[in-house]
From TrEMBL:
Transmembrane segments: 39-58, 78-98, 119-138, 144-165, 177-196, 202-219, 226-259, 279-304, 316-338, 358-377, 389-408
UniProt keyword list: Antiport, Cell membrane, Ion transport, Membrane, Sodium, Sodium transport, Transmembrane, Transmembrane helix, Transport
One GO cellular component term noted in the UniProt record for this chain: plasma membrane
Matching Pfam families: Na_H_antiport_1 (PF06965)
Main location: membrane
Family annotation (InterPro entries): Na/H_antiporter_dom_sf, NhaA
Gene symbol of the encoding locus: nhaA
Species this protein is from: Nocardioides psychrotolerans
Protein name: Na(+)/H(+) antiporter NhaA
Amino acid sequence: MTTPPSPSGRTTSHRLFSRGTFLENSRVSEILRAETTGGLLLIIGATVAIVWANTPWADVYESIRDVRVGPESLHLDLSLGTWAADGLLAIFFFVAGLELKREFVAGDLRDPRRAAVPVAAAMGGMAAPALIFVLWNLGGDGGLRGWAIPTATDIAFAVAILAVISTHLPSGLRTFLLTLAVVDDLLAITIIAIFYTDELDLAFLALALVPIGLFGLLVQKRIHSGWLLVPLALVAWALVHESGVHATVAGVLLAFTVPVLRRDSDPDKPGLAEHLEHLVRPISAGFAVPVFAFFAAGVTVGGFSGLADSLRDPVALGIVCGLVVGKTVGIVGSTWLLATFTRADLDDELSWVDVTGMAMLAGIGFTVSLLIGELAFGQGSAREDHVKVGVLVGSLTAALLATIVLRARNRVYRRICELEERDEDSDGVPDVFQHDDSHPS
């Protein structure tokens, strides 16, 4: 498969994970820096919860998590843990929806050839873990309800680990991880809406379309006053919550109404979607996700014997194998098949070892995996504790394996980054972005 001739008359072959434009590369780097900070806060919140839940003061942690607040007349007298899962994660999915829409409307992934790689990888990276989980739980004891738990990738956690590794990965590969995780989030929330909605109230769902429509009308007219948009978003969230669909779906629906492109078509200024993303991302990465992690990760393990008992549950084993093996096999396999059938080659800087390392890193499935586990088996159940153990063990194992692989490549890419920095002109744009005909800046 080849690209059309470049302006210089040369024909260039299609490359997987090739370098994006300079503006897109800079934007991805900015997002990853924000997600790194949020991921580190997420890890801190989860660690505090796990340690606290395994001390003599575990009952204090549980009592705080189970405190109910909110108006009972509106059926919103929820526990703090539920508020974190249903409310704060809606902010997370709003940002994910904005990012996804921008990538496919104005980002490098508006090119179908570029979009095909992360989309195929995300689908393969969800199908393989689900299949492995099902194979572990073909017993009829109710475990199959959790088939979607190992399908999700936690971008904040993964990027935080990537920052700790200090890997100088090429921008195309970092963009791949970011976009794969965003598509993964969208597929995960679709699964939640379809498969984990027990009772559906169509009247409330129809009513939710009113504030969502008004929100969309305002943002299409480029009205972005918080005094108008935030109340509409809260009403939409409450109505979706009342409809029986998981309330985080409201965040994605609201995000999809936000326009990406500017009316004056000025490429040097951000569109409304990017503007709102910059405003809301710090709240999502710095507060919403870490607080959810604090309330969701607290599980009483009970020492090594308790850990061993939890891992005897086929549900926990399915999660661990799905995250560690399924994610790697699914992502690498689907990418290899795409490359084979399109006759596309990896970018010259990369090898399949790099793709494998990133696929292992995508096996970190924390935030959404814990959310799906809670929806599948109920908050406070014994099996939910086994889910938490499986998610934690699987995510940590995937992170460890990815660290081993990517650290081995660290020195190579450090040299490449140093050479590119020497190649930078006075305009601040590396020459490779200016002279690469296939990716004009």
